[in-house]
Each structure stands twice: as C-alpha cells, then as structure tokens.
C-alpha cells in the first residue's frame, strides 16, 4: 500500500527563521574563540544551512509555501526567552546571554510548525518524517548529556531543562509515529496540539558542536 494523500501542512518558515536565530546567537563565538577546525566548520554549516533553508522557503519555493497557515506570533516566543536569558544565565556577559537565549529559544522554536499543523488539521507524510527527525535530534542530546556527566562530570542545568522542555513537546507525536508507522496522515484533535491518526488510503492524489 502506498502512502498517498492530498497536499497537507508543509514546513513552517517561521520555525526555520527561529532556528536560524538560534544558531546565529549560539555560535557568535566563531569570531572570538577557536577550538578546532571541525568545531568551526560545523558551526558554519549549521548557520549556513539555516539561512539557506529560510531562503529556499521564502524565495525559491515561495509558490509552495503555505503562509496563510504559518501565522504563529513568534514574538510570544522571542521576547519571553530573551527576558529569561537576561534573568537566568551562567554569566552576565553579552556572548553568554546570547548563548543562553539560543538554548531557551530552541526549546520552543518548533511551536510554529506544530501550530501550523494544528491549523490545517493534517500534515504531509514527509512533514511528519521531518518532525520525527527533529525530535530524535533533540532526544539524542539527552544521551549526550548523560555520557558527558558520567565521563566528564559535566552538568548544565539550563541546557538540560530546555532540552527536556523541547523533548516533551514531541512526546505525543513520537508515540503516534512509532506505534502507527509511516502510512498515515497526522491529524490534530480540535482544541489542542495532541495528535490523532487517520489512515491514508490509496487514491489518485499525490502521494563536537553541542547546545550543552
């Protein structure tokens, strides 16, 4: 059985903008601190890919971008996380505050994407795979922190709490994705971001750089 469905919610440009801001503010130490060629290269790749993605969404593939549903008020995420970064940080210096801001912002940067899916009611299969990959990326950081704590005694409460918040946002989605497989259309229940499933039937339609 093929997973065929009509067009559904795609990628949120606003979430991608937030991710670009996250990596830009996190890796400003590129100009002040050299650790290794690998470290520097990966930071540059993160930043470049983030802005390239934003450019692709709003320029090259603008005709396919669903801006009518990508309407989350990102200021409700940026302003509180910026204020929190000023109040709760490891060191009250510009780079440290910006790093802390990036950690807080990344924990909620996926919300415009989830909100976009909730507005349309359904998501394309490829979008669900994308969300799953993002969730796995964040979950792997949890194992990284456990390993670093055991091997190095490293413990960063700010990064861990922010990571847990972001992982929690994916929990319901993870459960549905893993238990129901790929041949489904993600459907958001009315009144919340909790996800339900609607099986897709065949049709003629289209189918070490660390935040710690």
UniProtKB/TrEMBL annotation:
GO terms for MF: ER retention sequence binding
GO biological process, one term: protein retention in ER lumen
Residue intervals passing through the bilayer: 17-38, 44-61, 98-117, 129-147, 153-175
InterPro entries: ER_ret_rcpt
One Pfam family it belongs to: ER_lumen_recept
Organism this protein belongs to: Chelydra serpentina
Coiled-coil region list: none
This protein's UniProt keywords: Cytoplasmic vesicle, Endoplasmic reticulum, ER-Golgi transport, Membrane, Protein transport, Receptor, Transmembrane, Transmembrane helix, Transport
GO cellular component, one term: COPI-coated vesicle membrane
Compartment annotation: Cytoplasmic vesicle, COPI-coated vesicle membrane; Endoplasmic reticulum membrane; Golgi apparatus membrane
The protein's name: ER lumen protein-retaining receptor
Membrane topology according to the record: Multi-pass membrane protein
Annotated family: Belongs to the ERD2 family.
């Amino acid at each position: 059985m093929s997973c065929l469905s009509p067009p559904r919610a795609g990628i949120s440009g606003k979430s991608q903008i937030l991710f670009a801001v996250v990596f830009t503010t996190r890796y400003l130490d590129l100009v002040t601190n050299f650790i290794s060629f690998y470290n520097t290269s990966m930071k540059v790749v993160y930043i470049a890919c983030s802005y390239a993605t934003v450019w692709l969404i709003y320029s090259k593939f603008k005709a396919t971008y669903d801006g009518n549903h990508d309407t989350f008020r990102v200021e409700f995420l940026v302003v509180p996380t910026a204020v929190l970064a000023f109040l709760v940080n490891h060191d009250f210096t510009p780079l440290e505050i910006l790093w802390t801001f990036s950690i807080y912002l990344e924990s909620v940067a996926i919300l415009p994407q989830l909100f976009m899916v909730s507005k349309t009611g359904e998501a394309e299969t490829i979008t669900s795979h994308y969300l799953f990959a993002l969730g796995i990326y964040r979950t792997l950081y949890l194992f990284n922190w456990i390993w670093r704590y055991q091997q190095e005694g490293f413990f960063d409460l700010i990064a861990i709490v922010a990571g847990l918040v972001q992982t929690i946002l994916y929990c319901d989605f993870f459960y549905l994705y893993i238990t129901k497989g790929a041949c489904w259309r993600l459907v958001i229940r009315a009144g919340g971001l909790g996800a339900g499933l609607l099986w897709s039937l065949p049709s003629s339609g289209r189918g070490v750089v660390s935040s710690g």
